[in-house]
Design goal:
This protein is mainly alpha-helical. The protein has a single domain, classed as Fumarate Reductase Cytochrome B subunit (Up-down Bundle). It contains 7 helices and no strands. The chain has helices at residues 6-25, 30-53, 60-63, 67-79, 90-112, 122-152, 157-163. α1 runs antiparallel to α2 (30-53), α2 crosses α5 (90-112) and α5 runs antiparallel to α6. The chain is elongated and about 60 Å long. The model has no long low-confidence stretch (mean pLDDT 93).
Length: 175
């Protein structure tokens, strides 16, 4: 069943690449680092817009849920009885929001460091640095969640983000 549209998939892999390039080029290849950061910032802006006008599974209204729902889902994960979702599950939706906010904050503080107002300002450099490390932690947690959900629901979520398709919902699943 088609779930992830081409724009969501292109965004996802492009953002992963731009973050990896920015991370690996930090402190060694300034121009590449800056341009990878600009790409990440532009991708996040485009994704936020698509989150309001895009296809059904791309919309924030489909996967952003109240904190109580997210906590209940996390408890279900710990019990081993979480529901399979065709789109993003509540924990995955929360992670997307966290990743988007962290990526935007990292790109924005990086851009600020190129302006006259913040060029060489140490506290802004530290903020950018800590945001980037926090973002890396979120990426690791995201990957762990993908591995766990793929295992628990017997579904390759990496392949789903490449092809855009997932198996249809069953009796115990949520569309």
């Amino acid at each position: 069943m088609r779930v992830w549209d081409p724009l969501v998939r292109l965004f996802h892999w492009s953002l992963a690449l731009s973050f990896a390039v920015a991370w690996l080029s930090a402190n060694s290849w300034d121009d590449l680092h800056v341009w990878a950061g600009y790409a990440a910032g532009a991708l996040v802006i485009a994704r936020v817009a698509w989150g309001f006008v895009g296809t059904p599974y791309a919309r924030f209204s489909q996967f952003v849920r109240p904190p109580t729902t997210v906590l209940s889902y996390l408890k279900a994960i710990l019990r081993g009885d979480e529901t399979r979702y065709l789109g993003h599950n509540p924990a995955g939706g929360a992670m997307i929001v966290a990743l988007i906010l962290a990526m935007f904050a990292t790109a924005f503080t990086g851009w600020l460091l190129t302006t006259n107002a913040y060029w060489g300002v140490v506290w802004m450099q530290h903020l950018h640095h800590y945001l980037a490390h926090g973002l890396l932690l979120l990426v690791v947690l995201h990957l762990a969640g993908v591995v766990l959900a793929s295992y628990r629901h017997r579904e390759n979520l990496v392949r789903a983000m490449i092809t855009g398709t997932k198996r249809p919902t069953g009796a115990d699943d949520t569309a």
